[in-house]
């Protein structure tokens, strides 16, 4: 989505040529295949572990870190694999988004029109806010040393990005709509 915004703002005349259905399909397939490979690597390393304790997982869903915590064998190699792969995926994703938005910001600041600047910030602001809200908890959840004190914090983080962010996304993206903003302004003026 950051690449889509980059092309829309930095190369608006080339947008229909660059963002073709074929490119979108290619990006979807790459993401899907990357996710499957990532999952298969974790599952392969998970098969070497034995689980003899309680099968109750202290989490909202069956995540890899939660499974590693109930293992009877030493899961330190698995933790290292999770740290390396999750960290590299997050660093790659975040750096791609930051580079795209840095170029977009430079392009926006070169524009002379206030309306163009406002429209560009409106287009990018919602996505950047959603990405920031989503990646924050993920960084804390997957790229930190394992300890027993952070179990409850992991649950709060996972609740944040599995429940709260999907609830906030429609609100964030609807704030780009002028009618929604006008209705919200009327409501706030009436209550104040």
Automatic annotation (TrEMBL):
The answer to keyword Secreted applying to this record is no
Q: Give its localization.
A: Cell membrane
Q: What parts of the sequence cross the membrane?
A: 12-41, 79-108, 120-143, 155-175
Q: Does the keyword Coiled coil apply?
A: no
This protein's GO CC annotations: plasma membrane
Q: How does it sit in the membrane?
A: Multi-pass membrane protein
Residue runs in coiled coils: none
Could you give a GO molecular-function term held by this entry? G protein-coupled receptor activity
- Which residue ranges does the record assign to the G-protein coupled receptors family 1 profile domain? 1-173
Question: Which UniProt keywords are given for this protein, alphabetically ordered?
Answer: Cell membrane, G-protein coupled receptor, Membrane, Olfaction, Receptor, Sensory transduction, Transducer, Transmembrane, Transmembrane helix
The UniProt entry, under SUPFAM superfamilies, shows: Family A G protein-coupled receptor-like
Lineage: superkingdom: Eukaryota
Q: Which InterPro entries match?
A: GPCR_Rhodpsn_7TM, Olfact_rcpt
Role noted for this protein: Possible taste receptor.
Q: What protein name is recorded for this chain? A: RCG52628
Organism equals Rattus norvegicus (Rat)
């Amino acid at each position: 989505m950051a690449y889509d915004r980059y092309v829309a703002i930095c190369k608006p005349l080339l947008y229909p040529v660059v963002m073709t259905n074929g490119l979108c399909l290619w990006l979807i397939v790459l993401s899907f295949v990357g996710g499957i490979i990532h999952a298969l690597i974790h599952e392969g390393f998970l098969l070497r572990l034995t689980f003899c304790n309680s099968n109750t997982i202290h989490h909202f869903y069956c995540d890899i870190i939660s499974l590693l915590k109930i293992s009877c064998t030493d899961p330190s190699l698995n933790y290292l694999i999770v740290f390396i792969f999750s960290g590299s995926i997050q660093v790659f994703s975040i750096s791609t988004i930051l580079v795209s938005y840095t170029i977009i910001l430079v392009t926006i600041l070169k524009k002379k029109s206030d309306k163009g600047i406002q429209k560009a910030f409106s287009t990018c602001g919602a996505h950047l806010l959603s990405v920031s809200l989503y990646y924050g908890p993920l960084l804390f959840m997957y790229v930190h040393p394992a300890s027993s004190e952070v179990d409850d914090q992991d649950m709060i983080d996972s609740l944040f990005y599995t429940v709260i962010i999907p609830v906030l996304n429609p609100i964030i993206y609807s704030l780009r709509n002028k009618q929604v903003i006008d209705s919200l302004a009327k409501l706030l003026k009436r209550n104040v």
